[in-house]
Amino acid sequence: MRIRVVSSREEIFTLNPNERIVHLAFRPSNKDIFGLVETCPKIEVIQLPKSYMATVSKSIEMF
To answer: What is the pLDDT of residues 13-60, one digit of tens each?
Structure first.
């Protein structure tokens, strides 16, 4: 499987709807995660750098 790296918020809306694994190279907000799920409804994995996990919203973990 291919991992798609997204390095900016603007790039989320240009993704292929069939993307399944996405790595976010920036600190996402809830709005960014919801936009990603809407843009890529078949998404299975959203990766974040470990250093961002402590500072992102806990509601993001529901996805």
So the answer is: 999 999 999 999 999 999 999 999 999 999 999 999 988 888 888 877
39 assigned to some structural domain: yes
In a domain? residue 19:
yes
Q: Find the domain containing 23 and state its range.
A: 4-52
Question: Are 32 and 12 in contact, with CB atoms under 8 Å apart?
Answer: yes
Number of domain units in the chain? 1
Helices first, then strands: H and E counts in the chain? 2, 3
For the entire predicted model, the pTM comes to 0.86
Kindly give, in sequence order, each residue whose CB lies less than 8 Å from that of residue 32, ignoring residues fewer than 6 positions away. Answer: 9, 12, 24
- Evaluated on CA atoms 51, 28, 17, 15, the torsion sign reads negative
